[in-house]
Design goal:
mainly alpha
Amino acid sequence: MVGKSAVLFRRSAFALLGLATFAGRDALAQQPLPPPPPPQYQPQPPYQPQPQPPYQPQPQYQPQPQYQPQPPYQPQPQYQPQPQYQPQPYQPQLPPQPATDRRSQSEMVFLYGTTMAYGIGSGVWIDSLFKITDPAWAVIAPLSLAAAAPIGVYIWDDQAGPLHRGVPASISAGLLLGAIEGLTIAGTQWQQTENDHKEWSFRTTMTVTWVMATAGGVGGWAFGEWVRPEPKQLAFIAGGGGWGMISGLAIGAGVTGRGQDWKDGASIGGLVGYNVGVAGMGALSLWRTPSFETQKWMWIGYGLGAGAGALVFPFYLASDSDPKHGFVAVGLGALAGAGVAGVLASGLDDNDAPGTRTKNFTPPFHVGVSPTPGGMALTAGGMF
């Protein structure tokens, strides 16, 4: 009994305590909370400037490369063994060609001079055709053509375009060589027919000379257009004509028999030697042309060879043979001397010494043709 009363009392006490707790919480909820205390003032520390980093420029904007599609995959070629070395035959090096193909002014000056002489000769030929003997009328054609020929060349060069390199000099050389050919033919004919009084008239002589000079000029133009020769090449051809004529005169005189006129053989030998020399040196120049220095020594060798051949003449003092035969040794010795000198001096160049100025080579003799009353005069001069 007592136990049940204690239990009831205890439960009643807990119930009253719970009611009191709920009632007190409601009363507290209805009363407002006290405000929080105001924040106390806190002094701020003095301002300290912060160091700024140095200015760094911003990189400029770089456009991105556009996308490039990659080529399709190419397989690498397999290793190929290299062919064995095969020696190549030697190929001669051609001389360097000049930068321009236009003729030089010096070539034109030379052509003006030769065409002026050609005009004078043409005028004399016209006078011979029409048998003009009055001096007042005879000078009209030579003077007119002497002016017309170079003027015509100037118009040709100006209107048809500048002549090619080497062509004016080749035409000039052809005119001179052709005129010498005509005079040599006429001289040979005169020598062979002098005793029979069948020599050509002045008109025929001038006609042959004019035809050969004209043919030489046309041939010189064709040779110049084909080869485009240098001045040293034309000098070499002209030198060959001189060597051939001199040696031909000596050999022709030497082969004449005893009692025969040596001039007959000399005239034929000179004509043949001149043509062989021009043709031979012309063909040789297509393969190789010696320099002016080499040609100078060839002329010196030609003279020394002629002197060496002349040493045979003292032996004729103790011989009954015809002394004229000694001229054969002179002519052949001169040609041999020129050939040996050409081989020994073949390596010389016109500009061997750097910074030096070489002079143009001048042949040891000069040939000129001039009209005279009643004929033509062939003059030759020089220093040997």
